[in-house]
Specification:
The protein is of the alpha/beta class. The chain contains 21 helices and 19 strands. It has an eight-stranded mixed barrel. Strand 17, helix 20 and strand 18 form a beta-alpha-beta unit. Helix 3 packs parallel to helix 4 and helix 6 runs antiparallel to helix 7. It is rod-shaped and about 185 Å long. Bound molecules: ligand C2E and magnesium ion (2 copies). Ligand C2E binds next to strand 11, helix 11, helix 12 and strand 15.
């Protein structure tokens, strides 16, 4: 209609209109008007296409918008899932690698947050447990001191540092409690443990921060001192350690003083000492200190090494000697001074060495004590001496009152089952209990009087007799002496030897004889070598004696001769 209006006034209007209409493409549509007429509408296709284009554009735009929104939502969601997840993965990877420090990030998603917390808890627990395992691996469980492994590691580092600095050296102190075995055997392991814990506490205050006190095992402690500039510093620590032990330990109702022996070794700067060398040197020095009588320290020197080596050889040989039956029991008669007749014998061990000949006990008993070999050795001597005495009795070589004395070492005495052991020997050999005298040195009794009295009472209750050996050397107090459940006092031979020469010794012997009679004890004088000594002892009222003047200790084969002849061993 619009086009019709536009071109109807022009002369060539119809022509132009046709041209124009040619340009349009029409979309015809017919609609019924209801009154029989019909309406034909021609809609230009361009208009229709335009409308369709707009519709498509709107659809595309809204789709793009939707996609954008969706993308944004996905990105936000992905961030809050993947980040905590990857953080959890990182923590677990670290745990696998042995690093427990990293923690998972918190998450807004509840499940992820819980997973992260669980992983964190696990990491924390693992960290604590690994730390505790690490501590256990390098510390002694009883005292909580560094153990041998940690000490060795620190020693290695200290030696390396010392070598770099050149002038400073490292000191190593090997400390061993003297006679600790006795504490364990007599008071039990719980008390022994308490003593070790307290000793560890006392030791820890003896060193500077940075030094190490370690428990090496049993009653052995090792002190590692760093940055020393003179040997005196190590010696002063040794003195401090000794001082710390002067205060008695309170163990239940017992109060006990324990001493220690210390071996000191020093590194030589720039010499590249190995940890094991220094440890060995300190150990060698410790043995030297023990050998010197305990309760002292010794500084390592090269000569000690060969002595330690010899001792080691001796220990091995002694083990072999026991196994190969190279030990012998010798018998020294005890003499009644009034008649000169033998009242019995003391069993004294000898070692028939295949190359060295007869070795005396002073050479090997201390080693046997140290190593514990004294227990099988001493028990064998007791068994053999009782068996032999019973045999002589059965052969009517001795009358049934003859007594056999057997020496008992500290270690034997403090064995839990010592009384049972004695009982077993008596029943195996058939010897009367009253014929057996167990000799216990005075110093062993004095080490722990109450425990010694308990075991002595137990033995006496079995009918066995007890002699206090080497009396006069163990600082007995009169109070104890009065209460000691003993039958004999054996006056130490050092006093007998000094009689007539040292005024003091004569007085001591005289006083001891009187005292022991007053206490109802029998006295035996040890080490009588001369007639003068015998005469003096008789005058003093001593009834029995033992010594080279009468007879040296003899092998069992020579005893029947003495017994058969019934000869007095020495006439007045
Ligand atoms: P002891 O028990 O005091 O034994 C006495 C020691 O004095 C013996 O030394 C004996 O030979 C020696 N003797 C005896 N009369 C004289 C004398 O007139 N002059 C001198 N100079 N010495 C004399 P032995 O046999 O060398 O034993 C030394 C120590 O070894 C013993 O001292 C004892 O403590 C220990 N012993 C010996 N045998 C054993 C044993 O079987 N077990 C244990 N635990 N110790 C033993
Ligand atoms: Mg003896
Ligand atoms: Mg003696």
């Amino acid at each position: 209609m619009r086009l019709l209006g536009e071109y109807k006034s022009e002369p060539e209007g119809a022509e132009k209109l046709y041209q124009k209409l040619d340009y349009f493409e029409f979309y015809p549509t017919v609609k019924s008007l209801g009154n029989g007429g019909e309406l034909l509408a021609l809609v230009p296709q361009r208009d229709l296409k335009q409308a369709a284009w707009w519709r498509d554009l709107t659809l595309l735009a809204s789709s793009l918008l939707l996609l954008g929104v969706l993308l944004a939502v996905v990105t936000v969601l992905t961030r809050s899932i993947t980040r905590p997840l990857s953080s959890i993965v990182a923590v677990t990877t670290d745990i696998v690698r042995g690093d427990y420090a990293r923690r998972a990030e918190p998450s807004k998603i509840r499940e992820l947050n819980e997973l992260g917390s669980a992983v964190n808890h696990l990491a924390r627990q693992l960290k604590e447990q690994i730390a505790s395992l690490h501590h256990q691996a390098f510390h002694d469980p009883l005292t909580d001191l560094p153990n041998r492994a940690l000490l060795t590691e620190r020693l290695k580092q200290a030696l390396a540092r010392g070598d770099r600095r050149g002038s400073e050296f490292v000191g190593l102190l090997f400390v061993d409690l003297d006679n600790f075995k006795i504490v364990n055997d007599s008071l039990g392991h719980d008390m022994g443990d308490r003593m070790l814990v307290e000793a560890a506490e006392r030791f820890s205050v003896c060193v500077r921060p940075g030094d190490t006190v370690a428990r090496f095992g049993g009653d052995e402690f090792v002190f590692l001192l760093e940055n020393l500039v003179e040997a005196g510093q190590a010696v002063r620590v040794a003195e401090r350690i000794t001082q710390e032990l002067q205060e008695p330990f309170t163990l239940g109702e017992h109060r006990m003083v324990v001493t220690c022996s210390i071996g000191i070794a020093l590194s030589i700067p720039a010499q590249k000492d190995l940890p094991e060398d220094l440890l060995r040197n300190a150990d060698v020095a410790l043995y030297e200190a023990k050998d010197g009588g305990k309760n002292q320290y010794a500084l390592y020197n090269a000569g000690m090494y060969s002595r330690a080596w010899e001792r080691l050889l001796l220990e091995n040989e002694l083990r072999k000697a026991i196994a190969e039956e190279q030990l012998r029991v010798y018998y020294q008669p005890k003499v009644r001074l009034a008649t000169g007749e033998s009242t019995g014998f003391e069993a004294l061990v000898r070692w028939e060495h295949p190359e060295r000949g007869l070795v005396l006990p002073d050479e090997f008993i201390p080693i046997a004590e140290e190593t514990g070999l004294i227990v099988p050795l001493g028990n064998w001597v007791m068994q053999e001496a009782c068996r032999q005495t019973a045999e002589w009795r059965d052969e009517h070589l001795i009358d049934s009152a003859i007594e056999i004395s057997v020496n008992v070492s500290a270690r034997q005495l403090w064995q839990k089952n010592f009384a049972n052991e004695v009982c077993q020997v008596l029943s195996d050999t058939g010897l009367e209990p009253a014929c057996l005298i167990l000799e216990i040195t005075e110093s062993v009794v004095m080490d722990d009087v109450s425990s010694a009295m308990a075991i002595m009472q137990e033995l006496r209750a079995m009918g066995v007799q007890i002699a206090i050996d080497d009396f006069g050397t163990g600082y007995s107090s009169l109070t104890y002496l009065k209460r000691l459940p003993a039958d004999y006092l054996k006056i130490d031979r050092s006093f007998i030897g000094g009689m007539g020469e040292e005024f003091g010794d004569t007085s001591i012997v005289e006083a001891t004889i009187r005292l022991s009679h007053a206490l109802g004890l029998k006295t035996i004088a040890e080490g009588v070598e001369t007639r003068e000594q015998l005469v003096r002892l008789r005058k003093m009222g001593c009834k029995m004696a033992q010594g080279f003047y009468f007879s040296k200790p003899l092998p069992n084969t020579e005893i029947p001769q003495i017994l058969k002849n019934h000869l007095p061993l020495a006439r007045s």
